[in-house]
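Q: How would the structure tokens look for this protein?
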Amino acid sequence: MSHPADSRIGALFARLRAEGRTALVPFVTAGDPSPDVTVPLMHRMVAAGADLIELGVPFSDPIADGPVIQRATERALAAGVRLTDVLDMVRAFRTDNSQTPVVLMGYLNPIEIMGADTFAAAAAAAGVDGALVVDVPPEEAAELAGLLRPQGLDLVYLLAPTSDAERIARIGEVASGFVYYVAVKGVTGAGNLDIDAVAAKLTEIRARIELPVGVGFGIKDGASAARVAAVADAVIVGSAIVERIEALVDRPAEIPDAVGGFLAELRAAIDAAGGV
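A: Here is the predicted structure in token form.
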């Protein structure tokens, strides 16, 4: 699948491709450590050079996430944050930012509780651009994709080092917007990055999927971000940001600048590395 040319995600990657630049995509858990932090943090990340924001939807059993993001989810749930609150945050963000794409990342259960058709309409109305639903395999995606697409929402998919040619092709049939290559086996925030292996896998993915490919997991600093930027369409950073948020849970007013400073370092390193 492809994305509509007029979608924010499609327009973003088209512009970056024309400029020879790589996207910087930060992940934060919505409502961590409290709901009032998230929207100012989103604006600060954009000011620091973020091109697209992945916003985690808190869920009680985040099986694909490592301990850092699991704790972020626990903090957000303890603060009472639910899917409807996350949509409200995106709506508030949109009052001052109509350009930066926002993708919700999470699990199917909160969507099913709301009702997938209700979710699709509400997410589009709030200004969401897509969803990455970790526990919906491509074989079971037709119904959800069929509800999201008419609302202009992209369905983003994860690919892993273990994804074989058949799996890649199948995901290529249902994914839209971009695909997210998990560069390290295991849960989020673990392991070390083998950039040669990543580059080889991206060649295999691009032979079967025309969408932009973002790479995440294991990006902790400017050096690792630059290595990924040399081969990927987007550098996705999650655990390293959430660790900085966790260190400041008792001083939440300092979180936007701490994360913004870190992202500015990554942005500079990515731009110095040049695009793919």
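Residues 202 and 232 are 8 Å apart (CA to CA).

Strands lie at 23-29, 53-56, 102-106, 130-133, 154-155, 157-159, 179-182, 213-216, 234-237.

Upvote if useful.
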